[in-house]
Specification:
The protein is of the alpha/beta class and about 500 residues long. It is about 35% helix and about 20% strand. Strand 9, helix 9 (about 290-305) and strand 10 (about 310-320) form a beta-alpha-beta unit. The structure holds ligand BES, manganese (II) ion and zinc ion (ZN).
Length: about 500
Amino acid sequence: MSELPNISFSKPSAPKKGVAVVFVDDTLALGSAASELDAATDGAITRAMKVADFKGASMASLDIVAPAGVKVDRIVVMGMGKTAELVEYDWLRLGGAAMGAVSAAKADHASFHLERADGEAVTAEQATDVALGAKLRGYSFDKYKTLKKDEEKPKTKAAKISICVETHGAADDLWKTQEAVADGAILARDLVNEPANVLGTEEFAQKAKELEKLGVEVEILGQKEMAKLGMNALLGVARGSVRPPKLAIMHWKGGKAKAQPIAFVGKGVVFDSGGISIKPGAGMEEMKGDMGGAAAVTGLMHALAGRKAKVNAIGVIGLVENMPDADAQRPGDIVTAMSGRTIEVINTDAEGRLVLADALWYTQDRFKPAFMINLATLTGAIIIALGNQHAGLFSNNDDLSARLTEAGLATGEKLWRMPIGPEYEKLIEAKFADIKNTGGRPAGSITAAQFLQHFVNDVPWAHLDVAGTAMGSPETEISKGWASGFGVRLLDRLVRDHYEG
Ligand code: BES
Ligand code: MN
Ligand code: ZN
């Protein structure tokens, strides 16, 4: 795998080698590093901006190769637009775009000269957001590409990036925190990208177990323990696979001993063939990513523990594989969930909600959390509704929804609230049991959420349908696409803003 960049912060100074990235707003006024370079190169920056009709628009960039008169190999001019209008996510995008220029140049060294021409200092938060964006952009999943031509290969040596900024001391401290979040998002991406032959249920549980080295307490329940608890909805899904079902419970105790915990629950279907209601062949390979919810929960726990968040947080992930087999669950089967409700399985491909039914019930029953948020690549219908740009948000609580929506706007991991309500109940009424696991084509994402609500009791709860955002996600400044790590930054932000201390 290509190595992620090594990022450090230092005081503003003259660029010495590699790529110098200078940031310029839409006034085109040059900061001190840019001015120095411009003077030493006989006005190369000023001239390039003029020739290219560069207006300093946000994310627009100019690449000046081998400028005479200075030691650097390249000068990249990165547009910031109107600096005062940049929100948190824009700083990440700037860092990502700058990192893109460094990678394209295959440079070992780069310096980012973060200055504002209006005299305001770039804050430590903004500087570490740039670093976070750069680190995330540096990620690629190419460990299985043994035949890639040398010249196509990303550098295997990690690029050294020095961010030169007035607030470097504070940024240095803050980066210890922010880097944990980057690592959490990268862990989530790795989990989603790994194929199912490599990352089965046991291997995933092992990944969760490895969080113990960060101080997370981890329990793994197996088939026997879950059978004893009555988790027949989850266990029914796992029947067709030779991979044993696992429930991983991650417990980060960073808050006061008696403080009520908050809980995150993830769908972890390591591969979703559809089971007996088997999926069509086209695109089925993407279903290795059907554990994107569980990956986000694991990545989040990594982030919270890594930055020693002052909160008690529980992560619960249901790990199964959905396969057809002589012993697989059938359409028409009726299972009794841990809650005591009976479920008629109409379609074995609506398996995520069966896994979550027991994982959610177990979580509220055992931990009595202040809230539960589950993440799941639950329905194709959410992609029809929202595309890959927003995740669907379903909730029984307006305050929690508002906080989540706000965290989404700040982090760029955006949510769009969708309805649930008693009028949808009729669609999941079963002929032979309490409820059925599908409601037909209309409102497919809503009936899935409505189904989940049966298993949350009266706990404040939100369900994030991340089928279009955790996997199959578009390329952005901070992601090369497909596995995005969606949910880690979002939920870290939610915790940071409202549930610590
Ligand atoms: N894992 C899928 C949903 C999915 C689809 C995730 C596309 C990512 C991309 C889920 O288990 C599923 O198969 N859902 C069915 C539900 C249907 C049978 C009611 C769907 O969306 O078609
Ligand atoms: Mn399915
Ligand atoms: Zn699925």
